[in-house]
Write a structure and sequence with these properties.
By secondary structure, the chain is of the alpha+beta class. The chain has one domain: Alpha-Beta Plaits, CATH 3.30.70.1290. The chain contains eight helices and four strands, in the order βαββαβαααααα. Strands 2-3-1-4 form a four-stranded antiparallel β-sheet.
């Protein structure tokens, strides 16, 4: 996870995700998925956040949410993942790590980039060929949004429009997928270039904008 997660900026949208340890399955049956959703409900009661979207997959999850105060992202995620891991161990009689290290997260601009991330998250089960339509996957915010689930935030930003269901079921462009995957791998803010560079200076993410590898030596 990028260095800023503990000192995350409040009032900013984030895409957070994590995988099962060694990429193993974490959600084995419907009750496991349901328990994680209940943990999200409890986490919001303890520390309010604006949960815009999510998708739980067999061995990983995606969340799109906005913490209210600086540092809330790390506190909220820590409580959620710890609560779920404890439940998992009680239920299955196991020990050790449930999740693959610390979660990843990166800020999202509250414009078309937020729409792109939400589409990516809500169509995750379609991309994995688990269901033919995004709304058929029960453990996603899409069916919850369709039925008016109070867990989901509905506020001042018109992210989902009247054609949202159709848009989610349409594949993302290759360029959008490439940019998203780059953001995930580097923890890089996802937005336009000026916004990205400005945002990267706030939580101390400057290194995430630099190319990987050693700096080139200047020729004499």
């Amino acid at each position: 996870m990028f260095r800023s997660a503990r000192a995350s900026v409040g009032g900013m949208w984030y895409h957070a995700l994590n995988r099962g340890n060694r990429r193993e399955v974490v959600f084995h049956k419907p009750g496991d998925y349901d328990a994680f959703v209940e943990a999200m409900v409890d986490a919001r009661k303890r520390l309010p956040v604006d949960l815009l979207g999510y998708c739980l997959m067999p061995n990983h999850f995606h969340l799109v949410f906005r913490p209210h105060q600086d540092g809330d992202l790390g506190r909220w995620m820590q409580w959620l993942l710890t609560a779920h891991a404890r439940r998992y161990h009680r239920h299955y009689g196991t020990t050790g790590h449930v999740w693959q290290g610390r979660f990843k997260a990166f800020p999202i601009a509250d414009d078309g980039h937020l729409v792109t991330v939400l589409r990516y998250v809500e169509r995750n089960a379609v991309r994995a060929e688990l269901v033919p339509k995004a709304e058929d996957w029960s453990w996603s915010s899409l069916p919850g949004w369709l039925r008016g689930d109070p867990l989901l935030w509905r506020g001042e930003i018109p992210v989902r429009d009247e054609k949202w269901l159709e848009r989610v079921n349409e594949p993302l462009s290759a360029a959008d997928l490439q940019r998203l995957r780059h953001s995930v791998s580097r923890g890089r803010p996802f937005g336009g270039e000026p916004w990205t560079r400005e945002t990267a200076t706030r939580p101390g993410l400057e290194s995430r904008l630099r190319p990987r590898g050693r700096p080139r030596k200047e020729k004499s």
